[in-house]
Every structure is written in C-alpha cells, then in structure tokens.
Design goal:
Largest sheet: 9 strands, mixed
Oligomer: single chain
Distance between the termini: 29 Å
Structural class: alpha/beta
C-alpha cells in the first residue's frame, strides 16, 4: 500500500476518533400510507419507504429499514443513487432542513434526473435499533443489499450506484465487493489513509446515554455520539453556514464500536476496496485532515487509486473549500454536480 498509510498500527484512529471521523429474506418495499403521501416539490416527489430486512440476509426479516426516496418528475430518469450516511448521521446528512432552507444532495440529484434513496441505517432515524453489538459493516452491507434487490425490482432496467459518506463509504465498498449488485460506487469523506487531524475527534465523542439529546430514550450500551457544539469540527469553518452546523447538531444520531471497527479495518487494510470491480469515484474535502495532512494532499490523492486494483476506472478528486462533511458545506453543489456528471458518464 502507499506510504501515506500509517506504518504503526497503534498510530491509527482510536475507536472514539474513528467514530467521529465517520463522521434479506426481505419483504416488499412498503408503499407510503395515506398519512405519508408523497411530498410534491418542483422537479421531484419525496416519500418514505420501509422494508423488512434480515440482519444477516438469510435469517428472519425482523428488522425495519427506512429510507427516503426522491423521484424526478420532469427530468429523464438516469438511474438510482442509494445514499448511505456515516456514523452519527441518518438520511438527513443528504437532506438537511436549516433555518435558511434545505441543503440537500438528495434533492439536487433528483432534480438532475436521478432516483435518490437516502437511507437510515439500522440504529438511526426511523429504522429499527437492534442491540449495538449487532451493528457493523457486515450488518449494514447485508441490509443495504436487500434494499437494492427490491429497488431493482421496482425500477427495472435502471443502473444502481452506491453513494457513501465516511463510514457509509466503507459500507458501500463492502456491499459492492460482497454482493456485486451495483454498477458504480461513489466514496465521499473516506480514504485508505489517516491524517493527524483525526486525533482531534477523541474529545468530540462521548457516551450517547450521557447526552441530553437522547434523554428518556433507550440507548444501546456502548453507543457514542458527538458532544454538544462539536459538529463544527466536521466542516471547513471558512466555508460553513452556522445555521447548517446548528441544524446538523440538532439531528445527530448514535454510533457503535462495531461500526468504528469496520471503518478502521477498511481504512487500514483495503479489505473490500481491493475487491470492488465497478467504476469508483472517490471525493474528499480539500481540508479534511482526517485522512491527510495539508502538505500531503496531492500525493495522498494519487496514492488512493491503488486501493481499487480490480476497478476498471478509478477517479480520485478533492473538493476545494470543503472539510469532512462535503454535502453540508456552502459549496455542497460542487460535490453533487461532480458526482452526477461522473455517474452520467460511467452508467
């Protein structure tokens, strides 16, 4: 692997740092009920879908996976983007309402002709919350695979791309490598390298059971979340809207040790990236110190290509003026436009 990867295993992110840095036997997709009728917006409709899923893909379908689907109404449909958020996020990473309106990668992609499906991973949002020790990359990839299977049935003939962010990118790589059921993978906020900036996030995390935001809720043992007021560490501050950071903090979710372990394993060992055999686009913020130190940006981008030896096409790019949370910076449309144009060429 490239020399930018830390040589000393002890120097890798701790579980706490990695958590913040990520920061079916299946039933049919459930149609929206009368009380959850599709929201009609100029250019697309928006509605929640739910599906019964199995934690392993072969056991009982006793969990519910929730996602929000955005369907174009004017543009020609180009394909499906399944969006997987990172830890301490649900689907609202891709569709966040702020005091100043929506900042939404999902809505913009739908307006551009993509059916977008923003997922609440198990343990977040409106999805089921199994025990914390059941939540890891293997569980998430199995349940996402079940969702993709049903989406392909519902939208026959359309290509499917996984669009992950941070730990969601590690899940996307594991799903694509394990099930071979997608046509492309977009990795954002994730690289197979570590920067010293990751150490800043140890102090940002604490037990979710101690956080006032989760008071009165049953929180699985071992769950973590970001401390109040610490979400700004995920942004390049000179290109962040304070209303976005505030809205982001208000909808934070929990993370588990298993999810962090899956993230670190992929980051350090290319466990699944090396098995992905479809085109890969990797996007990282120019100022995302979780994966490189400032002087190392260029060589880290160049080295990242080697993490995907089985892919027929690998493009690695940085987004200027962005930190870790690419989809929530002021120039989030740069990320969305880059993804949509790349997918239009590859699919």
């Amino acid at each position: 692997m490239p020399s930018t990867k830390p040589r000393n295993r002890a120097a890798r992110f701790t579980v706490g740092a990695a958590s913040a840095a990520l920061l079916v036997t299946a039933g049919a997709i459930t149609s929206p009920s009368a009380s959850a009728a599709p929201e009609r917006v100029s250019g697309f409709t928006r509605h929640t879908i739910t599906q019964k899923v199995s934690l392993t893909g072969s056991g009982p379908a006793d969990q519910t996976l929730s996602a929000v689907e955005y369907q174009p109404t004017h543009a020609r449909v180009k394909g499906i983007q399944v969006m997987i958020p990172g830890v301490t996020y649900d689907h609202r990473y891709f569709d966040l309402k702020t005091d100043r309106g929506w900042i939404s990668q999902a809505r913009e992609a739908a307006e551009d002709g993509w059916i977008t499906v923003a997922v609440d991973r198990l343990g977040t949002g409106n999805s089921s919350s199994p025990a914390a020790d059941k939540l890891n990359g293997t569980t998430h990839s199995a349940t996402i695979h079940q969702l993709i299977t049903k989406l392909r049935t519902a939208h026959k003939g359309l290509p499917v791309a996984l669009v992950g962010h941070s730990m969601g990118s590690a899940v996307a790589l594991q799903e694509a490598a394990s099930y071979k059921d997608v046509n492309a993978v977009v990795v954002t906020g994730f690289m197979h390298h570590a920067g010293s900036g990751g150490l800043l996030f140890n102090a940002a995390m604490h037990p979710a059971a101690e956080d006032p935001a989760f008071a009165g809720r049953a929180i699985p043992d071992g769950s973590l979340t970001t401390r109040d007021g610490m979400r700004h560490l995920l942004y390049w501050p000179f290109n962040a809207d304070l209303s976005t950071v505030k809205a982001d903090d208000a909808v934070k979710q929990i993370a588990t040790v298993g999810e962090s372990t899956s993230f670190v394993d992929e980051q350090s060992n290319d466990t699944y990236g090396k098995k992905v055999n479809v085109p890969v686009l990797s996007l990282v913020g120019q100022h995302d110190g979780l994966f490189f130190d400032p002087a190392d940006l260029s060589k880290t981008l160049t080295a990242e290509t080697a993490a995907y030896p089985a892919s027929p096409a690998v493009d690695v790019k940085s987004i200027p003026g962005a930190g870790h949370d690419l989809a929530l910076q002021r120039n989030a449309d740069s990320t969305t436009n880059t993804i949509d144009k790349w997918l239009s060429r590859k699919l």
